[in-house]
Design a protein that fits this description.
about 260 residues; mainly alpha; Helix Hairpins; 6 helices; about 90% helix; rod-shaped; coiled coil
Length: about 260
């Protein structure tokens, strides 16, 4: 057996094998740290987006409340205008009633032409005021219709924003669960690989120790063989000297050369 092969085996330090696995473990730990940082960044973005959506919904609610308040004020104003118009209509005499009064009292009518003219002027102004109020009421009704349309639009936008916010929260929650699941799986794989690598490292260290022990035993066996070779040579020389006959030459085995 060539001792150089034994020396080569004993020189294979298991630490050399385990260093590559340790570097792989460190690499996986770096990946896990990166995933944790990514999850933290994702959570911050989710919180920021959620706050922005909440602020946007709050603004929409304020706009809706303002539009509702304005609409209530418009309705109150319309009710007041309608009451005034009805009161003015009740104050105005009907045309048939005015004609019958003139037929019954023609003399008094002739005596009070000036008063009637003044009264007719006041009635004309009153009718003009009523017409202006009616026109104003029509404008207010148009504004109320526009306000109702705007109110409906704001309600639709608010509902849409709430729906989008809910969908976004569900999406972010699902992505967070997915990242956490991937991270948990990766950590589990790293732990399993670490256990396997530790077992492999212990096995390599045990094998190296056994090889060293075997190498020591082989060295001791080689020393014993060299001692036996020396004793055989000495015995052969003594027999050569003591014998009158020519003894055959015994082959000599160079154990030192053979083992080295």
């Amino acid at each position: 057996m060539d001792t150089r092969s034994l020396d080569k085996v004993t020189q294979d330090d298991p630490q050399v094998h385990t260093e590559s696995y340790d570097s792989q473990i460190e690499c996986l730990k770096d990946i896990i740290s990166g995933l944790k940082a990514e999850i933290e960044r994702h959570d911050k973005e989710c919180n920021l987006t959620r706050q922005q959506e909440i602020e946007r919904i709050r603004k929409k609610q304020d706009e809706l409340w303002k539009a509702t308040k304005d609409l209530g004020e418009l309705r109150q104003f319309l009710s007041t205008v309608k009451t005034e118009i009805d009161s003015m209509h009740r104050m105005m005499p009907a045309p048939e009633q005015a004609a019958s009064v003139e037929k019954k009292n023609p003399r008094s009518s002739n005596n009070s032409d000036t008063g009637i003219g003044d009264e007719q002027g006041e009635m004309a102004k009153l009718r003009e005021s009523v017409s202006l109020l009616e026109a104003r009421m029509e404008g207010v009704l148009d504004e109320a219709a526009e306000s109702q349309t705007e109110n409906k639009r704001l309600k639709d936008e608010l509902g849409k924003a709430r729906s989008e916010n809910l969908s976004l929260e569900v999406k972010l929650r699902d992505e967070g669960h997915q990242l956490n699941s991937q991270l948990a799986d990766l950590i589990m794989k790293v732990n399993k690989n670490s256990e396997v690598l530790n077992l492999f490292s212990d096995h390599c260290k045990s094998d190296a120790s056994q090889v060293k022990v075997l190498h020591g035993r082989l060295e001791a066996f080689r020393a014993e063989l060299l001692e036996i070779e020396t004793r055989v040579d000495m015995c052969a020389d003594e027999l050569q000297l003591a014998s009158v006959h020519l003894l055959p030459n015994f082959p000599k085995y160079n154990f030192n050369r053979t083992w080295r």
